[in-house]
Design a protein that fits this description.
Radius of gyration: 32 Å
Number of helices: 11
Distance between the termini: 61 Å
Strand content: 5-15%
Largest sheet: 2 strands, parallel
Number of strands: 4
Helix content: 55-70%
Length: about 260
């Protein structure tokens, strides 16, 4: 019995299917690859340009630069950079220099005030208490009080968020180093991207605690407060968008 002859339109298939001319499994959708010969014939009025257009359309399906989640990464990156810069400026502007006993005695003498022994002892105790607090609290030039670890932590956590999201944005536009790996990593429904988004949400929650709680830089700098919340919302939005693109329900619909 002679082998079957199938005539196909090349514009109806993607690049991967066009390359698979030795078997018909990719075109027929089955596993039976018995003797079947395939001939690709361009329909009348079509040209090689049509085939190239079909190939380009197939490649665009894997173009992660068109991913809707890319905008969320960009917003998160910009917000984190704003928060890092604002926190750094607040910290580098310096803190109020607390007075010493020599400064207090000199100032009192200039104003014609003489402190007795009891007053000097009370003042010394007060200055000592301030110095102990000075090790824990950062006194801003405008009277803001921020815990030292939060002043430094705001710079660190914002810088970490900015670095990760900036690298993610750059990876979306990479076409030279590892384009195939990045396309797989950030494809719709990718579990690796889901894990990355969960990590970013955890970092954003830590940033909220450090940057917007009591005695934080967010109380002194509105840019830090709002940019931290913007980064958090962008991460949550991206995660929900990932679920939608993966064909899943939104998180609140599963509750």
């Amino acid at each position: 019995m002679p082998s079957q002859l199938l005539i196909r339109d090349p514009t109806a298939y993607s690049t991967e299917q066009l390359r698979n001319t030795s078997t018909e499994a990719g075109l027929l959708g089955g596993d039976d690859t018995a003797s079947v010969s395939t001939v690709f014939v361009q329909p009348e009025g079509s040209s090689r340009k049509d085939v190239r257009s079909a190939t380009a359309a197939a490649l665009l399906l894997h173009d992660i630069t068109a991913s809707p989640r890319l905008y969320g990464y960009c917003v998160c990156s910009i917000s984190a950079i704003v928060s890092m810069i604002s926190s750094s400026i607040f910290y580098t502007n310096g803190a109020v220099q607390l007075p010493t006993m020599d400064t207090i005695n000199t100032t009192a003498t200039d104003y014609g005030i003489t402190l007795d022994t009891e007053q000097q002892e009370l003042t010394s105790i007060w200055v000592g208490a301030l110095n102990e607090q000075r090790m824990k609290y950062f006194y801003g030039m405008q009277g803001n009080v921020v815990q030292y670890w939060k002043a430094r932590g705001a710079i660190a956590i914002s810088g970490l968020m900015a670095l990760i999201t900036l690298l993610v944005v750059i990876a979306h536009f990479d076409s030279y180093f590892f384009p195939k790996k990045f396309r797989t990593f950030f494809a719709d429904g990718s579990m690796k991207e889901r894990n990355l988004l969960l990590v970013l949400i955890c970092i954003a929650i830590c940033a909220l605690q450090i940057n917007t709680s009591r005695y934080s830089v967010g109380e002194a700098q509105a840019n830090v407060f709002f940019s931290t919340w913007t980064s958090f919302l962008a991460c949550v939005f991206n995660y929900e968008l990932w679920r939608t693109n993966a064909g899943r329900h939104l998180t609140f619909q599963n509750v």
